[in-house]
Amino acid sequence: MLTDLVVALDIGGTKIAGALVDGDGRILVRAQRRTPAREDGETVMRAVEAVVDELAASSLWPLAGAVGIGSAGPVDAGAGTVSPVNVPGWRDYPLVERVRRATGGRPVTLVGDGVAMTAAEHWQGAARGYDNALCMVVSTGVGGGLVLGGALHPGPTGNAGHIGHVCVELNGDPCPCGGRGCVERIASGPNIARRALENGWRPGPDGDATAAAVAAAARAGDPVATASFARAAQALAAGIAATASLVEIEIAVVGGGVAGAGDVLFDPLRRALRDYATLSFVRHLTVAPALTGTDAGLLGAAAAVSPRRTGGAPVSLTG
């Protein structure tokens, strides 16, 4: 028997994914489109509507009572708008209202993608059973979210825990967000690859110049590739330690494409964390890879709709 069926949307700079998700976290129907991130805002919205239309063609669609959105940010859950750094056509874009119309007037919950991933990991992943956690997405960008006191903590606008734009290098490179020396500017996949290329690493015959290729080179012993991941790990460690000092988290869960590098990332991350997390109440912080994988955004968007799925904490509802 299906219970608590919801529409889940995961909107990022690379893809727009949608699903019908039940109350046990089962993804029953899927749809996906490429994000036309460099196009105008209406073109991006048409891709969202195409995903919704594909889900609506399912016989299960009438059973879905609400919509959850995890979007690249910043988001403003109160206003129902999004301004993703990596989707320039959306600035204060009224995403909640547009999705409400596209889904036949269903109520819509909006959170940042990092908060969505956190909801997923607390519901079904590595943060399950922890009352205080930071969960991070390290991919094209770096996002995050918090569980505090056993409940998801999205903050007033749905962006709390957005560790990617914490400054860890005071005179660092400018970041697209407008700041300098952000975790994202150092630790995101494109920036890992950029730094490796700038320091002399060269792709193999296939021409793959992504962070995944840099990780493969590091695994094979390339010193430049190894150093680029070590620098990313240091930035992540500094941001995690700062967060732990502020709110006393017990675990930091790291997911996203860059986390797929495995020990190439996690070994230097744990070493660097020993240099930053030195206070007695953060010294025993656990670092773990995420478990919900590529479905984290969809599961988290679904989880954000229901307080029962997020540990009993109400999240910001718009609509």
Search tags:
Nucleotidyltransferase, domain 5; 6-stranded mixed beta sheet; 319 residues; 9 helices; 19% strand; 5-stranded mixed beta sheet; 2 domains; single chain; alpha/beta
What does this 3D model show about the protein?
There is one protein chain. This protein is an alpha/beta fold and 319 residues long. It folds into two domains: 6-112 and 295-318, Nucleotidyltransferase, domain 5, CATH 3.30.420.40; 126-290, ATPase, nucleotide binding domain (Nucleotidyltransferase, domain 5), CATH 3.30.420.40. 34% of the residues lie in helices and 19% in strands. The protein contains nine helices and 13 strands. It has a six-stranded mixed sheet with strand order 3-2-1-4-7-13, sandwiched between helices. It has a five-stranded mixed sheet with strand order 10-9-8-11-12, with helices on both faces. Strand 5 and strand 6 (81-82) form a beta hairpin. Helix 3 (113-124) crosses helix 9 and helix 7 crosses helix 8. It is globular, with a radius of gyration of 19 Å. The two termini are 27 Å apart. 53% of the residues are buried. Belongs to the ROK (NagC/XylR) family. This is Sugar kinase.
Strand order of the largest sheet: 3-2-1-4-7-13
Beta-strand portion reads 15-25%
Q: How do the SSEs run, as a string of H and E? A: EEEHEEEHEHEEEHHHHEHEHE
The whole-number mean of residue pLDDT values reads: 92
Spell out the CATH superfamily of the largest domain.
Answer: ATPase, nucleotide binding domain
Q: Describe the largest sheet.
A: 6 strands, mixed
Class inferred from helices and paired strands: alpha/beta
Question: CATH class of the largest domain, please?
Answer: Alpha Beta
Give the CATH architecture of the largest domain: 2-Layer Sandwich
- What is the distance, rounded to the nearest whole angstrom, between the alpha carbons of the first and last residues? 27 Å
- Stretches where pLDDT falls below 50 for ≥5 residues? 312-319
